[in-house]
Every structure is written in C-alpha cells, then in structure tokens.
Amino acid sequence: MIEWAKDDAEAAGSHLPRFERDTASIYLVTSRDGVHINAEWVYARQPLVPKGALQHEWNSGFQLAASQIVMDDTKTYSRVYYEARKHRHEDRFKEAGSIGMASWRRDTIVGVRAANATVGPAVLVTKAFSMQSDRLGVLVNVDAQSGPCGNGSVAVEVVDDAERTLPQASDHLPIPITTQATAARVQWTQSAAARAGAAVSSIPISRGSPMRLRITIAGSARLYAFRLIAVASGPKPPGQRFGRG
C-alpha cells in the first residue's frame, strides 16, 4: 500500500522518525469470497510487517512483500519475504534494497486478545450454529504463555442462541486453557466439587438446535482459531457375526 504518494513534505535526516508519507507499507487484506474485501487493517494503520523507527534503519521506508505466504521446511512457521529500503517511494532506487523475512508460528498471523488486560477479560460470542450430534467438542488454537506476563487463559462455554447456559450442560464448567497449542481440546468438569476429578472433552447438546460459543480471554492470552467437533453418543450398533463354514 503506497501511502500519501509523492508527498515529500516530511523532513529528511538519518536520526529523524521514519517517513509516514510517500512510503509503502505491507498490510494484510482478507476476503471470505474473493469479491468483498476487508481492508480494516489499512484504515486502522496496523501494518502486517513493522518498520524501523528511524530513517537510517534498513526497513524504515519502502516495503514490498512477495505475493505468497510460505511455510518453512518443518511446516511450523509461516513466513513473508519482502523487499525493504530506508527511502521514500520516489527515492527507493537511490540505494540497493535488502530482503527481509517476517515469521509467525503456523496459523497464528491474526488473533484476538483483551484490549486492556488490566481492566478485565475479553468475552467473544460466536455466530449461532447447530450440530447434527448429541455431544459437542471444541478445539482451539491459543497462546496463553507468550504475553508479557505469561499468565493468560482461554475458557470456552457453549450457550444457546440467547446466550443462556444449555440446560443439559448446566453443570459443565469450563477448564481454562493456559498453554500454547495449535489444537488444544477444550475440557469441562461436571461440577465445582468435581473440578479436581476427571475432565470431559465433550458436552451434551440438543441435535439441530442453535447454539453459540462464549469464549473468555483473560490476561495476555490470544485466540487464533476454533473448530467444532461432532461427537457421536449412544450405544454402538452390534457387530456382524460370522459362522464357520
């Protein structure tokens, strides 16, 4: 994204703050269907790749990203390679550029967290959904350890469409997740007294009824994604018997 193109009114100097005009920045722009574009990152002035703070730094000016996000050989990290220069867009060819790389743990480029963890936790309520099963399990991609304090947590409740506790799961209390994991299985206990006992990884639901997830994000924890799992319940069908011939 070229910002304030051809505007060179800012003072130049190696120890002055980086240019904010006539420069190019790397933003994440997403789309669910390839037609409707979400450019909120641009309007919020939140670049995907940070720049150097001062004009003499190699990555403080013009930046141009490669066309694809790639993964490392172990498929553990997502990477963005980019060209970086310390000059304005119009002056970018005064010196040779450099190649930089930004890296994230796989599937963690974008997440949500509490805006101000000192005030209290953030609560995220999902859109309504229904499942054709009698029990529901949830997987979450979270990081509750890498913040400044390392004491975050993520707890998941399943509520009905009006955000009320499900009657059939009213005694299931969420166990907060305090680890870093790409696919952590959410667990619940069946009562406050049983919290020290065995945990369950699915809760009873009404087949086909609308419900939502209510996710509480505390401290410096980040939530990157969640996945619903339909869990079969009830007796298994009898196995077929074979006689000797």
Characterization of the model:
The chain is mostly beta strands. The protein has two domains: 1-108, no CATH class; 122-231, Sandwich (Jelly Rolls), CATH 2.60.120. It has one helix spanning 40-43; strands at 2-3, 23-24, 63-65, 70-71, 77-84, 98-105, 122-125, 135-143, 153-160, 173-174, 180-185, 188-189, 203-204, 211-218, 222-231. The strands form five sheets. Strands 3, 4, 5 and 6 form a four-stranded antiparallel sheet that branches. Strand 4 and strand 5 (77-84) form a beta hairpin. The longest helix is centred in the N-terminal third of the chain and has 4 residues, at 40-43. Mean pLDDT is 88; it is low at 239-245.
Q: How many structural domains are formed by the residues?
A: 2
- The fraction of residues in strands falls at 25-35%
Q: Which fold name is given in CATH as the topology of the largest domain?
A: Jelly Rolls
Radius of gyration: 25 Å
Low-confidence stretches: 239-245
Mean pLDDT: 88
Q: Can you identify the CATH class of the largest domain? A: Mainly Beta
What spatial form do the alpha-carbon principal axes imply?
elongated
- Total count of helical runs of at least 4 residues: 1
CATH-derived architecture of the largest domain: Sandwich
Quote the distance from N terminus to C terminus. 76 Å
Name the structural class.
Answer: mainly beta
> Could you tell me the number of beta strands?
15
Main sheet?
A: 4 strands, antiparallel
Q: Give the fraction of residues assigned to helices.
A: under 10%
Order of helices and strands: EEHEEEEEEEEEEEEE
